[in-house]
């Protein structure tokens, strides 16, 4: 048991060191992966908003070139074409300077007064992107969400101005917030995520949950990761959430794209730490088991090889012992196990022959015959 422990101890220590190193590496890669996923989602949200911003800029440019909002049918056709090609548009419309909608997709809200809406007021001054909000006027006309959540939109508005600088009104659009969920879902799917213990969030510039689990929507998250994100810092940490559970969390701020300056959204991705650590623990156990198995296999191989080496030597040692006791008839076992054993066997054979020769008379000595005395003559 002492020899076994002596042989297994180094392998166990190496296995423990390797499993610990691998565990730390897996934790690091897990947080890096989350940070990469959050950055991808943030980038795709910026690109998507920039494309919609560009759409509205081009449409506004065409209306400004026409110089009036009188051709309502033509405007409506443009809006319908854009909405058909880009389904995330829930509504596109043009309102005159008094806030009356003169043309819109599907004729929704035509004739309605939108002068009190934030997007209209802001759009009379400059290009505008509005943060997420629930539908008010459109809630009565659009079909409800299949998942039962309230309709929520992001607004884009562009001022309409003639070439001579005379205001024409405002071009506005409501973007369905469902596209953000689709963006997050596509990134999680490509990244091997989409697991029950992996969630994606979109937070406002104040840290309020705009997209995420329903029980957290509308709540402000007071977390170190969120504070870093709203300050424009990408970060990954392990932290305890309000539900008392520990998560690996990564945040990436959106930064805008081109002339779209962004809305200060923060993308957060989290994964349950217990699930990640369970994977690490399983990997560590496999490494330790593999180290012990390799040590045992090496020990068994060494034991077999040692037996092959020791058996010829033991036989030769027995023969040498019997020769030393005077048993010259002892046969010396021949062996070709390895060079040293072969040489020792040959030496013992020569020693046996030498001892045998020394104990045998060199020559046979005949006993002398006495001369017979002849009788005296009478």
UniProtKB/TrEMBL annotation:
It is a multi-pass membrane protein. The keyword Transcription regulation does not apply. The chain crosses the membrane at residues 287-306. Its EC number is 2.7.13.3. InterPro entries: dCache_1, HAMP_dom, TCS_sensor_his_kinase. This is histidine kinase. It catalyses: ATP + protein L-histidine = ADP + protein N-phospho-L-histidine. Gene3D superfamilies: 6.10.340.10, PAS domain. Residues 307-360 form the HAMP domain. It is found in: Cell membrane. It comes from the Bacteria. Residues 359-378 are annotated as: Disordered. Keywords: Cell membrane, Kinase, Membrane, Phosphoprotein, Transferase, Transmembrane, Transmembrane helix, Two-component regulatory system. SMART domains: HAMP. It is an enzyme of class 2 (transferase). The keyword Signal does not apply.
């Amino acid at each position: 048991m002492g020899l076994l422990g002596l042989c297994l101890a180094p392998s166990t220590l190496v296995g423990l060191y390797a499993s610990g190193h691998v565990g730390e590496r897996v934790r690091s890669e897990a947080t890096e992966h989350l940070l990469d996923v959050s950055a991808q989602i943030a980038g795709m949200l910026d690109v998507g908003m920039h494309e919609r911003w560009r759409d509205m800029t081009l449409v506004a440019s065409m209306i400004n070139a026409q110089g009036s909002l009188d051709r309502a049918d033509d405007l409506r056709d443009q809006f319908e074409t854009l909405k058909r090609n880009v389904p995330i548009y829930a509504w596109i419309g043009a309102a005159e300077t008094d806030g009356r909608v003169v043309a819109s997709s599907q004729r929704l809200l035509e004739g309605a007064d939108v002068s009190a809406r934030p997007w209209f007021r802001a759009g009379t001054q400059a290009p505008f992107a509005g943060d997420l909000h629930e539908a008010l006027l459109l809630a009565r006309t659009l079909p409800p969400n299949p998942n039962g959540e309230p309709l929520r939109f992001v607004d884009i508005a562009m001022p309409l101005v003639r070439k001579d600088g005379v205001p024409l009104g405002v071009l506005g659009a409501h973007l369905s917030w469902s596209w953000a969920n689709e963006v997050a879902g596509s990134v999680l799917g490509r990244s091997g995520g989409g697991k029950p213990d992996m969630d994606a969030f979109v937070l406002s510039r104040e840290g309020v949950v705009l997209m995420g689990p329903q029980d957290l929507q509308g709540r402000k998250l007071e977390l170190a990761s969120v504070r870093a994100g709203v300050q424009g810092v990408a970060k990954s940490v392990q932290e305890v959430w309000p539900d008392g559970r520990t998560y690996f969390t990564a945040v990436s701020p959106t930064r805008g794209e081109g002339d779209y300056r962004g809305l200060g959204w923060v993308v957060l991705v989290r994964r349950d730490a217990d699930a990640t650590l369970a994977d690490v623990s399983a990997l560590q156990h496999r490494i330790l088991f593999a180290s012990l198995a390799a040590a045992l296999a090496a020990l068994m191989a060494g034991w077999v090889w040692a037996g092959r080496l020791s058996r010829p030597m033991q036989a030769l040692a027995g023969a040498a012992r019997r020769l030393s006791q005077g048993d010259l008839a002892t046969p010396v076992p021949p062996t070709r196990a390895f060079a040293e054993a072969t040489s020792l066997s040959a030496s013992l054979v020569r020693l046996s022959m030498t001892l045998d020769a020394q104990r045998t008379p060199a020559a046979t000595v005949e006993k002398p015959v006495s001369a017979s005395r002849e009788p005296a003559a009478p």
